[in-house]
């Protein structure tokens, strides 16, 4: 008994001395009928727990282009990642117009986010919930569940702690406070929007085919109006035209004479972000296809049966009867982002402002990327005196060409508008900008200000596109992967407003080109180097590029098979 008791004493002491370590108590009999005990400390498990405690907690809000790109490219196992989003999938949004008409099926363009999470070699998890508040003081995000109430329990709320927060929540459709848009128009931002449009198109044809419908009512029902002459609106109008011409006209031969498609654009042209050659070709093609294009028409009201527009040319208000309206213009910040902006004092902005490293201004450990944010590029003239003083190491008040050698690269990297200005003026480099009639002439601060006075005119906000969001996500993941290395060996440009260097190179967007499918197996492409291609051959380029950009081999196979199915059997007109 005494020996058994000593075993228990030692076991008890081990439990008391190391309460935070997991234990395993083994009981066994010993000679003489006594009872022995061994306390085993699970050091391997304890080491794992300690590693988890040391890991930095990264919370990613959103599973769109920016959030998914960040998640896919993050490789450092020293992070514990929690993804929170009301969508448990990533959607390839450039193909949403194709989903609206059955060219591509909805499930073909989505990838479950858990398929991506499970492949990571670090601690990562996903929660299907909606973030409704960001608490920067306590470093918490407040979330609520979105599952149907009939599952029991109602809406549940919970919080997630973070060390780093990545806001990639995207944006919502911007109605510009136009009356009736939310209640009566269809949007084209989500997969559910595309599916709803597809059902409505079939509903319009089915109702118009009823014998009790009058001639005028039939014309109204089969009038499809698209608001917005950007890429999304133009591509949907083209897809709808092809759907009607190639498939629905065969199924509803008596109705094809009543179908009208109208595209409303408040500006002077459609596709105004493209080359003028593409804009002209698109407008001419739409005219040939019978798609009515009305530019200079600003929508002022949308009712359940009519759209009211104000014509810029005449100033008159025109009423347009319609059967279905698709609102494909503008984006706006989500309510949670607007609330967060009020917290941090960004009330006068439309979207979150970040620095060139995608950090939210005023929040060092919070990053924002994609459509919910914009980079607030610092102006050269704001820092002109500091830039001059950094180059003027001997404080002489004047600079020669040689004095700029050490800071030229940092200036061009820190202020990308300098490079854009040099290209616009056809100047070879920064030295060519500084040179005057005398090679060795000295430059004072006033002369320096004069030379750089027009540089900031080249500052531009990045477009809210999938391409930008994906590059930002990849860039930020790369920064996180090299966080420890760059803490000790910063690789960024010189800190003009401080000492040393920035940890990382600032984000730089690289434009890889853009496409505009125009229907009839014709696509327009504008690629770097002012290269423009339009026609059937460009459609095949569009096919190959979009197939390669899909997030997985599963979605690639599904989308390509959908394209083959459509060309072989046509589009499906079932209302499902």
UniProtKB/TrEMBL annotation:
Transmembrane segments: none annotated. The keyword Protease does not apply. It is a peripheral membrane protein. InterPro entries: EF-hand-dom_pair, EF_hand_dom, FAD/NAD-bd_sf, FAD/NAD-binding_dom, NDH-2, NDH2-like_C. The keyword Membrane applies. Its EC number is 1.6.5.9. It catalyses: a quinone + NADH + H(+) = a quinol + NAD(+); a ubiquinone + NADH + H(+) = a ubiquinol + NAD(+). Keywords: FAD, Flavoprotein, Membrane, Mitochondrion, Mitochondrion inner membrane, NAD, Oxidoreductase, Peroxisome, Transit peptide. Residues 379-414 form the EF-hand domain. Its cofactor is FAD. It holds the Pfam family NDH2_C. It comes from the Eukaryota. It is found in: Mitochondrion inner membrane; Peroxisome. Belongs to the NADH dehydrogenase family. This is NADH:ubiquinone reductase (non-electrogenic). It comes from Datura stramonium (Jimsonweed). The gene is NDB3.
């Amino acid at each position: 008994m005494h020996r058994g008791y000593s075993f228990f004493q030692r076991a008890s002491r081990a439990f008391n001395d190391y309460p935070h370590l997991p234990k395993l108590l083994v009981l066994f009999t010993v000679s003489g009928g006594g009872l022995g005990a061994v306390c085993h400390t699970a050091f391997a498990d304890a080491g794992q727990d300690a590693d988890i405690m040391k890991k930095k907690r990264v919370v990613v809000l959103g599973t769109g282009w920016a959030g998914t790109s960040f998640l896919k490219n993050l490789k450092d196992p020293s992070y514990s990642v929690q993804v929170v989003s009301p969508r448990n999938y990533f959607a390839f949004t450039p193909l949403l117009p194709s989903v609206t008409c059955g060219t591509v099926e909805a499930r073909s363009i989505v990838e479950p986010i858990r398929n991506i999470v499970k492949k990571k070699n670090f601690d990562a998890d996903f929660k299907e919930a909606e973030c409704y508040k960001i608490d920067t003081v306590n470093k918490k995000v407040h979330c609520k569940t979105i599952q149907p109430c009939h599952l029991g329990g109602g809406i549940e709320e919970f919080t997630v702690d973070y060390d780093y927060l990545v806001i990639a929540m995207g944006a919502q459709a911007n109605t510009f406070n136009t009356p009736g848009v939310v209640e009566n128009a269809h949007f084209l931002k989500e997969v559910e929007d595309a599916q709803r449009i597809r059902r409505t198109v079939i509903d319009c044809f089915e109702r118009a085919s009823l014998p009790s419908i009058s001639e005028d009512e039939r014309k109204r029902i089969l009038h499809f109006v698209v608001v917005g002459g950007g890429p999304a609106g133009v591509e949907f109008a083209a897809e709808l035209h092809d759907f009607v011409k190639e498939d629905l006209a065969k199924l509803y031969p008596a109705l094809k004479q009543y179908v009208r498609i109208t595209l409303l654009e408040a500006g002077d042209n459609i596709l105004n972000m493209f080359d003028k050659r593409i804009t002209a070709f698109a407008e001419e093609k739409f005219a040939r296809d019978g798609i009515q294009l009305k530019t200079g028409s600003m929508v002022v009201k949308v009712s359940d049966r009519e759209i009211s527009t104000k014509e810029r040319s005449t100033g008159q208000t025109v009423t347009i009867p319609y059967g279905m309206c698709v609102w494909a213009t503008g984006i706006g910040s989500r309510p949670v982002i607007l609330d967060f902006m009020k917290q941090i004092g960004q009330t006068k902005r439309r979207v979150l402002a970040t620095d060139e490293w995608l950090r939210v201004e005023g929040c060092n450990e919070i990053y924002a990327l994609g459509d919910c944010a914009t980079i607030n590029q610092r102006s050269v003239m704001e820092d002109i005196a500091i830039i001059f003083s950094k180059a003027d190491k001997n404080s002489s008040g004047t600079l020669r060409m040689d004095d700029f050698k050490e800071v030229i690269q940092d200036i061009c990297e820190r202020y990308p508008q300098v490079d854009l200005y040099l290209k616009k003026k056809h100047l070879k480099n920064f030295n060519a900008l500084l040179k005057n009639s005398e090679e060795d002439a000295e430059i004072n601060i006033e002369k320096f200000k004069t030379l750089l006075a027009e540089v900031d005119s080249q500052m531009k906000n990045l477009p809210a596109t999938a391409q930008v969001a994906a590059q930002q996500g990849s860039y930020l993941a790369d920064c996180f992967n090299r966080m420890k290395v760059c803490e000790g060996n910063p690789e960024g440009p010189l800190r003009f407003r401080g000492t040393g260097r920035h940890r990382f190179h600032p984000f730089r967007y690289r434009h890889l080109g853009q496409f505009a499918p125009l229907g009839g197996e014709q696509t327009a492409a504008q690629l770097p180097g002012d290269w423009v291609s339009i026609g059937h051959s460009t459609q095949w380029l569009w096919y190959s590029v979009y197939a390669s950009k899909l997030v997985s081999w599963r979605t690639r196979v599904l989308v390509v098979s959908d394209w083959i199915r459509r060309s072989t059997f046509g589009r499906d007109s079932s209302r499902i």
